[in-house]
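> forwarded from #structure-qc
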């Protein structure tokens, strides 16, 4: 019988999840990004976690990307370099309607969007455009 669960404090942490899917309603992701950062009061990343999913046979922890981001301000340059590092580990399988090469390339865009959202950018419009299948892809 479980009587207690202890969870570390989430004070200072922000997190987000981005999912690309074929249909606008509930659907399994063909690409996903989960990102969390702990920011100092001055906006410097004290700790970070980035995981990319559906671009390999299991979710991949982007350790190099997370390590790089730690100690950086969450600015455009740091976000771009972090997104590039995270996309390097993506190894999409040929198991969806989407092209594998495109899914690998768009991984960086999804990481960028996730980190911009964590920075505080209003990403609602981008989320609607990117997270649903479009005939332009």
């Amino acid at each position: 019988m479980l009587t207690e669960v202890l969870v570390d404090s989430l004070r200072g942490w922000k997190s987000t999840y981005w999912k690309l899917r074929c249909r606008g309603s509930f659907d399994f992701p063909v690409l996903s990004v989960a990102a969390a950062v702990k920011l100092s009061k001055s906006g410097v990343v004290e700790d970070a976690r980035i995981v990319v999913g559906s671009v390999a046979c299991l979710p991949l922890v982007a350790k190099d990307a997370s390590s790089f981001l730690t100690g950086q301000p969450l600015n455009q340059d740091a976000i771009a370099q972090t997104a590039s590092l995270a996309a390097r580990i993506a190894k999409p399988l040929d198991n969806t309607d989407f092209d594998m090469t495109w899914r690998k390339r768009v991984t960086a865009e999804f990481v960028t969007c996730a980190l911009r959202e964590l920075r505080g950018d209003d990403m609602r419009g981008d989320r609607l455009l990117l997270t649903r299948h479009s005939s332009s892809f």
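QC bot note: The radius of gyration is 16 Å. The domain at 13-130 is CATH 3.30.390.50 (Enolase-like; domain 1).
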